[in-house]
């Protein structure tokens, strides 16, 4: 049985899939693997690999999947990974990576799943990630990221799960997130976000899970939330919010009350723009199963076989 990855594997010039996952492999990732020019899948997750991620992996021009999660890798994420032009799945989660998220990752135009959660990453979330038009999953939770949520993330038109929870993010929740029409899970809990909840989030018609607890949010829960018919899990506790369900009030009754309040407001102001469909950054202030092997728990309650017209979990 191998105890480390032999550099001689770099001589397998025609190999397209290399799976070394789920072993007890130790040591570092050999730079010789950067010579595997035909490689499409490199899976080394769930081992005990240490050291840094070799920048020479950028030479894997045909690579579509790179799984390095669940190891003990350290150092920064090499910007050279931005040269993996065909990669669709990039998993770096569950390591000990430090430093900032390289802006070079914004060049990964084919990327669908990006997991960098449960590391020790610092700095801000690069706005260039909002240009990843094919991205469906973005997980950066469980780090030490700071600064505000970039409004550019509102350009992730295909994203289904957006997890920014468990960081040190500040500022308000950008109203442009209301433009994420395919979003099913939004996790923002455990930060220091402030200000009101944007009314524009009421336009997220596919949203099933909204977790924004443990922040510094203020104001009322928007009436527009009454339109979130697919919402099943709502966690808004440990903020300074008002307008939640009253004692003994069912969730269905609460949502109906929100809809009635919104309709009353529209009757009083018939010419007013509906803030639930606004998507520009001016609206500021007005999903998700767990990926295989991720060390953070899923946002919770994501069963999609349940009746989608009822919320089943709520924390106020």
UniProtKB/TrEMBL annotation:
UniProt KW keywords: ATP-binding, Cell membrane, Leucine-rich repeat, Membrane, Nucleotide-binding, Repeat
Localization: Cell membrane
Keyword Repeat: yes
Signal peptide residue numbers: none
Domain of life: Eukaryota
UniProt GO molecular function: ATP binding
InterPro entries per the UniProt record, alphabetical: Leu-rich_rpt, Leu-rich_rpt_typical-subtyp, LRR_dom_sf, Plant_LRR-RLKs
Gene3D superfamilies for the chain: Ribonuclease Inhibitor
Keyword Membrane: yes
SMART domains in the record: LRR_TYP (SM00369)
Chain positions covered by the region annotation Disordered: 258-316
A GO CC term assigned to this protein in UniProt: plasma membrane
PANTHER family in the record: LRR RECEPTOR-LIKE SERINE/THREONINE-PROTEIN KINASE-RELATED, RECEPTOR PROTEIN-TYROSINE KINASE CEPR1
Protein known as: Leucine rich repeat protein
Native species: Ectocarpus siliculosus (Brown alga)
